[in-house]
């Protein structure tokens, strides 16, 4: 395909520079072009045909018929067939029942079409071993996205607009305006189809496209270009920011063994195996957080990916000075607890973490998929050695009455810690052990038929049932 005019030459050269600058095309690579039949995708196909020999690339097109616009959908499909036949580009066609997918997955028609389209493109890419999928987003799309993000308040990353590359999705036309695309097609004498639904001002993006951007151009005729160039600078600045914020997050995050309540995170391993606490809660040092150049934004970067809203993050940040130990704030997926000089963050878990389990006699009891409790008796001799590990307890069996019960701690629970003589509230004992609120909530106890606590699981046995020189038979409890 020969270049025929300065408009064509300029359009192709601009695409070449952009693809080279952002390393979008690999020599001798195979690329799929998402072809709808509209002006954007047609111009993408044509400009890549121009660049075919420049990069030695191979092109194939893919068209999705979503069956949303009746005869128009069939018209678009036929147009794509004829265009690809004329340009000698292989075309892959797929048909979707978009309404059925949207109903099944309870999503909007727009989201259903997007999911179907990109899932199909990725599967096709793998099937034909293509390098990437080329989509026809242009500069105006990116500007509209940036303005939408600005209105929604999506943070710094939203100010990047649309990126030239997202995994295997590339956008070679991202530096071109819609006007340039139309001029390019006009210079080539190429036709394209028009989606009638794009002409209605009934969605947020179209309101920005039809109402807001024209107003901005009254202030600055080059507004779109200026906004796009700003988005590119923001993208570069974010590379520096991302590195700095990762250092800040690493600095404020405490490894479990260094945490003020870290002993619990180490010694309660058997409890964690029950599924009662996450294996790796995130622990944030409040003093270290306050030393950061921007404590609130550091907190924002930690909490936003875990579902916390801007209002919640502001609430958490303003509460740091008052230190409301024990207070919990939840997102859709996580819980955050104030715990003295730390914030502890973990995925949500049900309040009733383990249902009470009754143990009528000795034997092996399955507590979870990967954990069992073995209950057995042992004869004690002069050389009997009681267990001294956290996952095993040895008790004097003479005064223990079955059935036993494994359950979570309850308000008012008391026991006599091993080595002591007086009773102590479990809540006070766990506070002394610097357990955080999540660990307290997840803590298990083993009781006998008289509801006496035999073992604070993974922590300490009750002194009333300790092994003595007079013990004849021991009850051995082992978490396997």
What do you see in this structure?
- This protein has 480 residues and is α+β, with helices and mostly antiparallel strands.
- It has 3 domains: 6-239, HUPs (Rossmann fold), CATH 3.40.50; 278-347, no CATH class; 357-479, Phenylalanyl-trna Synthetase, Chain B, domain 3 (Phenylalanyl-tRNA Synthetase, Chain B, domain 3, 3-Layer(bba) Sandwich).
- The protein has 16 helices and 21 strands.
- It has helices spanning 6-21, 39-55, 71-87, 98-105, 109-128, 139-152, 178-188, 204-219, 223-252, 262-267, 269-273, 286-290, 295-303, 310-318, 426-432, 437-442; strands at 30-34, 58-65, 91-95, 132-134, 165-166, 169-170, 282-285, 328-330, 334-339, 342-347, 357-359, 363-368, 371-379, 392-396, 404-408, 414-415, 424-425, 444-447, 453-456, 460-461, 473-479.
- It has a 6-stranded mixed β-sheet, sandwiched between helices. A 5-stranded antiparallel β-sheet has the order 11-15-18-19-20, with no helix packed on it. A 4-stranded antiparallel β-sheet has the order 7-10-9-8.
- Strand 19 (453-456) and strand 20 form a beta hairpin.
- The longest helix is centred in the middle third of the chain and has 30 residues, at 223-252.
Distinctive features:
480 residues; alpha+beta; Rossmann fold; Phenylalanyl-tRNA Synthetase, Chain B, domain 3; 6-stranded mixed beta sheet; 5-stranded antiparallel beta sheet; 16 helices
Helix and strand layout, with pairings?
Elements: H1 6-21, E1 30-34, H2 39-55, E2 58-65, H3 71-87, E3 91-95, H4 98-105, H5 109-128, E4 132-134, H6 139-152, E5 165-166, E6 169-170, H7 178-188, H8 204-219, H9 223-252, H10 262-267, H11 269-273, E7 282-285, H12 286-290, H13 295-303, H14 310-318, E8 328-330, E9 334-339, E10 342-347, E11 357-359, E12 363-368, E13 371-379, E14 392-396, E15 404-408, E16 414-415, E17 424-425, H15 426-432, H16 437-442, E18 444-447, E19 453-456, E20 460-461, E21 473-479
Parallel strand pairs: 1-2, 1-4, 2-3, 4-6
Antiparallel strand pairs: 5-6, 7-10, 8-9, 9-10, 11-15, 12-13, 13-21, 14-21, 15-18, 16-17, 18-19, 19-20
Helix pairs in contact: 1-2, 2-7, 4-5, 6-8, 6-9, 13-14
